[in-house]
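Lecture notes, part 5. Sequence design as translation. It can be helpful to think of inverse folding as translation between two languages: the language of shapes and the language of residues. The source text, in structure tokens, appears below.
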């Protein structure tokens, strides 16, 4: 019985690919510092660190030039009610060859989709531009203004 309990506990602690929970976001440890930064900025501009959905963030092998993606999963409960769970996949190759600021940009972009329900902004320099290549240079030089605009447009929407 004791062995069984230990196994059970071991599974709970490390069994699921060491996911940690950060304010409603289930995530691998590599993403924690970027999520912390996002949540601190969110608190500064939107007054809360809470995310709007249950979000799971993890590495994946994404096709082509896609660096990250956000999608929704609808979970049916036994009582037939539904719950939305969001997934953020980050391309592992991109992650391994990128600078900190590029990682931060992609995490903010995907949380923009999954948490703030933001859509793409194509006509200007913005975190939500679908072409990260266009924004990367400015974001890496100074991200303050882009982050402020990112959260302010979320505020305007609501
Ligand atoms: Zn996008």
């Amino acid at each position: 019985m004791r062995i069984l309990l230990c196994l059970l506990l071991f599974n709970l602690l490390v069994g699921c690919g060491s996911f940690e929970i950060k304010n409603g976001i289930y995530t691998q440890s590599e993403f924690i510092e970027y999520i912390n930064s996002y949540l601190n900025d969110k608190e500064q501009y939107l007054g809360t660190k809470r995310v709007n959905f249950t979000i799971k963030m993890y590495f994946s092998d994404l096709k082509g030039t896609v660096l990250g993606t956000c999608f929704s999963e609808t979970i049916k409960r036994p009582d037939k009610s539904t719950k939305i769970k969001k997934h953020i996949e980050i391309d592992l190759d991109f992650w391994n060859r990128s600078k900190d600021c590029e990682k931060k940009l992609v995490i903010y972009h995907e949380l923009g989709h999954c948490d703030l329900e933001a859509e793409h902004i194509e006509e200007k320099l913005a975190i939500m531009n679908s072409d990260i290549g266009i924004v990367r240079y400015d974001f890496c030089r100074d991200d303050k203004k882009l982050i402020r605009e990112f959260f302010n447009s979320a505020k305007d929407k609501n």
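The translated text above is only one of many valid answers, since several sequences can fold into similar shapes. DSSP finds six helices and five strands in the chain.
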